[in-house]
Amino acid sequence: MATERTLSIIKPDATARNITGKIVDKLESVGLRVVAQKRARWSEADAQKFYEVHKERPFYNDLVAFMTSGPIVLQVLEGDDAVAKNRAVMGATNPEEAEAGTIRAEFAENIERNSVHGSDSPENAANEIALCFSDDEIVG
Ligand code: IDP
Ligand code: MG
Fold first, then answer.
1. Distance between CA atoms of 135 and 112, rounded to whole angstroms?
2. Are 124 and 52 spatial neighbours (Cβ–Cβ below 8 Å)?
């Protein structure tokens, strides 16, 4: 297994409930290391750019409104197989379908307000990390 990096975001529904530490604990418990982290408040342009791949989806405008509705915590996670490992501990997009013990099963409010983002491939992870962090903000 190769050491990888992936982009994680703790979403506004989770920062509003002050559960960022509980989410970091879940990530660390499966062996992911937080090698960069910052809190931010996205502008509409930031969210539109990040979610450009979804711009034709019916939920795009709502998603942009949600992701700009409050603070977020952006993270780079590092570990063996980090992309897949993070997706596994996140659980399914819809918390009703998420496996017990996953972040979304425990913390998500609904399919939109689902507490976390995680890159879905190593290629997208590299692009998302470069969009959100400069090299000197990442300390492995
Ligand atoms: P993912 O976050 O599990 O990778 P994506 O399909 O990439 O899921 O969708 C991005 C985000 O858009 C989701 O995490 C969720 O916040 C939102 N979203 C996805 N599908 C729906 C939907 O059917 N209704 C409302 N929001 C959705
Ligand atoms: Mg996705």
1. 30
2. no
Return the H-helix or E-strand segment holding 78. strand 72-80
For ligand 2, the distance from its centroid to the CA atom of residue 138, given in whole angstroms, is: 22
- 54 belongs to the catalytic site: no
Q: Is 40 helix (H, G, I), strand (E, B) or coil?
A: strand
**Closest ligand 1 atom number to CA of residue 113:** 16
pLDDT digits (tens, 9 = 90+) for 36-70: 999 999 999 999 999 999 999 999 999 999 999 99
R_g of the chain, CA atoms, integer Å: 14
Could you tell me the two tokens for 50? Answer: 């990040």
State the average pLDDT for the chain: 98
The ligand that comes nearest to the alpha carbon of residue 92 is 1
Sign of the CA dihedral with 76 first, then 58, 88, and 16 last:
positive
Token pair belonging to 120:
């879905």
- Return residues with CB closer than 5 A to ligand 2 (ion): 120
The rounded distance, in Å, linking the Cα atoms of 118 and 7 is 6
Selected catalytic residue, list 74, 98, 117, 118: 117
pTM: 0.98
